[in-house]
Amino acid sequence: MEKNNLIVEFSTVATTQAKHLAVLSASSHGLGLPQPCQRIHGFTWEQSPNPQCNRAAITYLRMHSYYVSHPLPTTQKKRAPKTFNLCDDCKKDVEKIMSNYSQNWHKQEDNYQKFRSQLKSKCNGFNKAILSQTNTPVGFKIVYDWEKATLKVDRKLFNTFIKEHPFSNRTWDTCAVVGNGGILADSGCGRMIDSAQFVFRCNLAPLENGYEKHLGTKTDLVTANPSILKQRYASLMDHRHPFVESLRIYGNSLLLLPAFSFLGSTPICMRAIYAVEDHGSPMRPVYLNPEYFISVKSFWRTQGLKSYRPSSGMVMVSLAFEVCENVHVYGFWPFSNHPYGLYDLKHHYYDDRKPDQGIHAMPAEFGLLMKLHNQGVLKLHLGDC
User: Fold this and answer.
1) Higher model confidence: residue 38 or residue 171?
2) What Å distances lie between residue 341 and 76, 84, 95, 352, CA to CA?
3) What CA–CA distances, in Å, run from 118 to 16, 95, 121, 381?
4) Which one from 29, 165, 338, 360 is the annotated catalytic residue?
5) Is there a catalytic annotation at residue 360?
6) Which of 2, 85, 232, 287 is deepest in the core (most CB within 10 A)?
């Protein structure tokens, strides 16, 4: 049954329980559980004979077209973790972090608009995030964002640019920015992530072979750092079909390539674009504008982030603020123990490869995201969905 952008399904549960409602709303995520028999948007919440309403998890989700056919648990699912390797102070550290995490999240529109306006005025991702034939003509001098180098745009490079900026004057209601943290393993967040209108993903992380349930598969933009292309595909100097085949799961999404940080990255990224074109992949490769990256780095420094470079995920969060009305963030927990179960987590949900030291500051980035979550600016998802 549909009315006023709500999708409602009645489902029968255990013998002593009445029908429960699972509701999708255009209201803010995390408004809390409505009381039984409370009327909302023209629908009546049905009273259960159980005094506690049979633990009815009436789930309020921001995501349009997300469909729930059963009540979700209000507590973390019990799992059988393999190992607990907690250092002496780790439990206290995690508990301290989580004590500052707002469980009953409400979007604070004033805080959101203020933060968004500050970021927009500094970074202007609408027009500058991606190099295009519109904003970067032949003869333009590209300034690298890390090495002290420049590159004059010639016709060959210009022809690899997208014709128009894909975000100009367009916004989406709900966006999911999906990191690759080990916290997403067995999280069950796939359907919630896929329900977002626009999904950002990072560094060609795997989405098949059982990951679908926890990560989803919907992708509108995925980043591909040159380091990933080096490690997995030998800088695309050999057969390129395996690389193109790995892109299949991402459909016709944007493939965002940061080609202008290091001089050696540019030819690798150009080979990635040629591989996509030569093999008829539906993906749409685009270059990250180094000027935008510098602006993002500068902006987060004003917020207290002192790392050499913001991570790909932090850049995607920044872009999401400009093009999305509601930003949901997944997989950014940077610590080695689960925030609820305290069991061991891999660094990534798919492997335990640690990042290079001294480049990014993942805990500091998480601290800033936690602060924005508590201010109602974005929704930071931790634990199971």
Assistant:
1) 171
2) 8, 9, 11, 19
3) 52, 32, 5, 24
4) 360
5) yes
6) 287
